[in-house]
Amino acid sequence: METQAAIRTRRSIRDFDPGRKVSDRQLHELFELVGLSPSSYNLQAWEFLVIRAAAGKKKLRACAEDQRHVEEASAAIIVLADTYPIDYARTTMADRVKLGYYDQQKAQATLAKITAWKGKGAEYRKLKAVRSVSLACMALMLAARDMGLDSCPIEGFDSGQVRKGFGIPGRYEIAMLICLGYRKQEPRQRLPRKEVKDIVHLEALGRPLQ
Amino acid sequence: METQAAIRTRRSIRDFDPGRKVSDRQLHELFELVGLSPSSYNLQAWEFLVIRAAAGKKKLRACAEDQRHVEEASAAIIVLADTYPIDYARTTMADRVKLGYYDQQKAQATLAKITAWKGKGAEYRKLKAVRSVSLACMALMLAARDMGLDSCPIEGFDSGQVRKGFGIPGRYEIAMLICLGYRKQEPRQRLPRKEVKDIVHLEALGRPLQ
To answer: In chain B, what residues touch A42 (CB-CB under 8 Å)?
Structure first.
């Protein structure tokens, strides 16, 4: 599907067809594309816990303000943001040296910089991780649409309850949930969007792009 | 361009062709697409300050670890996340009632919920805003690619310095910078990505999707 069509037909779907399943093969294709998203130092601090089993989706729905699409979608995805991806930093720095992006000295200096994130406090690391992982989430939703799938991002959930219910270690911030499946019917009219002039400023705030 | 092609050929470009400019018309087309991104309650808490003037880009480069692509790209975008989008909440709730999504009572209850964000502290609101705006940023980068444009997201900048230099009010979190322009040459080989089995768990952590 054309990119613009994927963007224009992506909708936050809340009525999923419970009879149509997302297969392992589809998940594989989808996440291979998601993994191509950009991230600081290529740290790829994203992990995805995909829940397709009925009991798991039921449990997750109970953590997510009882939103029924969590249970009715073929898969509900718990999106995890690693707030301290230091282990992988070593691997990706080695990749950089191997491919000639960095020399050893720059790789070491960068590793020291990433190591220092630990001292910058939880808020700093959470913001960094969630920002990065959210980029991948949008790639997920657009790639899904391209594959004929639908999605719905969810912010309304009890993070502590999800953490406890699914055994998520403290190093991960639970960035969002995403429902994945097939739309049951065409959704209602899209809610209006702001006009371009209301969101884009040229050179200085208050100088809208007309 | 096909969505998968946009995803696969999107690269974080650091060598921009300084001779090729991004026009107002292109910006308009791009941001119309960006605006279709999903957001909690359709709040669209994103604003974009687009800097194309030489002096502005030079100033921004100085706030961004002297990264030369900030200055060499046709446009450097300061991405703003409104941490308390209460004014627009009233508009979007009225839209919901008008289109039959919500009744008056639900619209009022939701507005009260959004109003309560103010009491939840700066970290909560920052995380929420940055998460939402980051989704739009990935849509921006993919839509740009589809239009033949290139981009580079930047996290390495001094937020206080950008705030001061460009007069950004405190209610906005500066979510990231994005360079926008045309690639000068084909970039180097993409850095390796994690394998799908390393980022996707099925049903429980530690059960990788093979």
So the answer is: 191, 193
pLDDT of residue A87: 85
Contact A184, A15 (CB under 8 A): yes
**Given CB atoms, is B2 within the 8 Å cutoff of chain A?**
yes
Distance, CA of B10 to CA of B139 (rounded, Å) = 11
Smallest Cα distance from A197 to chain B, Å: 9
CA distance A182 to chain B (A): 18
Taken in order of first residue, the domains within chain B and their CATH numbers are 3-199 (3.40.109.10)
Round to whole Å and give the CA distance between B198 and A39: 16
Residues of B in contact with A200 (CB under 8 A): 27, 31, 47-48, 50
Q: Which residues of B touch A47 (CB under 8 A)?
A: 199-201
DSSP letter, residue A206: T
How confident is the model over B146-172, as pLDDT tens digits? 999 999 999 999 999 999 999 999 999
Which residues of chain A does B2 touch, with a Cβ-Cβ cutoff of 8 Å?
1-3, 146
β-bridge partners, B179: B76, B152
CB within 8 A of A154, min separation 6: which ones?
A64, A67, A70, A176, A177, A178, A179
The pLDDT mean for chain A works out to 96
Residues 6+ apart with CB under 8 A from B134: A130, A131, A132, A134, A135, A138, B175, B176
Beta bridge partners of B96: none
C-alpha triplet B111, A196, B62: angle, nearest 5°: 100
**What is the chain A residue with the closest CA to B195?**
A32
- Whether A53 and chain B come into contact, CB under 8 Å, resolves to yes
Decide if pLDDT at A164 tops 90: yes
d(CA A199, CA B6): 24
Q: Does the pLDDT of residue B87 top 90, yes or no? A: no
Q: What mean pLDDT value characterizes chain B? A: 96
- List the structure tokens of B167: 């007069």
